[in-house]
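dude i think i finally got it to work??
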Amino acid sequence: SPMLNLKGRIADFDLGPVGLRGCQVDIKLATTRDAHFRLHGASKLAIVHKSIDLDANATRVTFATSDRVGGVYESDMRFQSAISNRPSWDMTVRFKNDFSRTLEQDFSRRALAWAKGVERDFAKAKGSIDGAQRKVSGLETQVAAARRQVQGDRRRMAAGVHAKEKRISSLDKQVQSLEKQLRKKQDSLKPLDKAAKSAKKAWEKAKRATANGSLLEKGPLKVAEGAKWTAYKSAKAAYDVASGALRELNPKLNKLRAERVAAQAQYGPAKLAYEAAVRVPVDVDPRVAGLIGAMATARATLTAAKAAVSGTGTAVAAAGRVTAWAARNSGNVLALDSASFGAKLDSYLRGGRVGVDLAVRLMGQRRSLQLHASSREIAQGKLFESLWQALEKSL
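look at this
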């Protein structure tokens, strides 16, 4: 039987906003049942992608088409019928509007993330206040303790200097007393020494007289010599006792003088150290100054933390409203009422910008705004980011 079989394919091309791919034609003309006509291909016009499938044979015709507009909508249609004098078409249509749902979900997701971030930052700032306050309180306690320690050390230094002064004064009095006693004893020793020497001379004279006297005179002279000797011994004993007492005073006096010298040697440096210490203000003492510096830093941190919390008060209130609204409205804070797109075709095909007019309700409050984006930006979802930037300050 006569038959005509044609098959063809159009080469793919992509010119940026315009493209064609996978286009094929298959035609078979014959008197047999395997005659058919098939057309398949896909094209794009900027963000619009369209595909067509047509399959016709001796018994049935099937036509399917699909449209994809990036980030806006999708549609699929299928028509099918048996070949007859009165065709009966079966139709299946699927339409999916992604734009409003995606826009609402994207904005709501961003808004909830923003609200959680604000609440998290607020809680962190509150925690920073508590931590900074604890640190300031701890440093205040340490500063007070360090001041007490410095003041206590200075009181002990003053008490030590005063004790050394009292010790030196006491030693001075003891030395003066012994020196006075020594002078008195030295003064009292002179007449005793003189009396002892005089008694000795009298005894020696009596002794010579006895030796030179006659036999008859020796008896009385011997008695007189004995009396002189007794007087001499008595005077010498008195001198020896007084001299011995004087000798005992000298070591005691020397010891006291040595102790006084040692006490004075300790007193000088102690007094200088105390005077040097009290010339320095308590808060300038290294044990206190370092803690005061740390406390000043901690107070500055506390002030900054309080300022941060105060500054986020309005944002926290707004975040609370966002969270509450989302909880009452299935997680959505934005509703799209209408959207319209407009652009010049030649500019659009070259990737130019599209004007998008939107009417939305942000947490029940109506807003109208106009955005601009290229077809590529719309396909990449950057239109949603522009919407967020435009409405973020309205939260």
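The chain has three domains: 3-88, 122-292, 333-394.
im so relieved honestly
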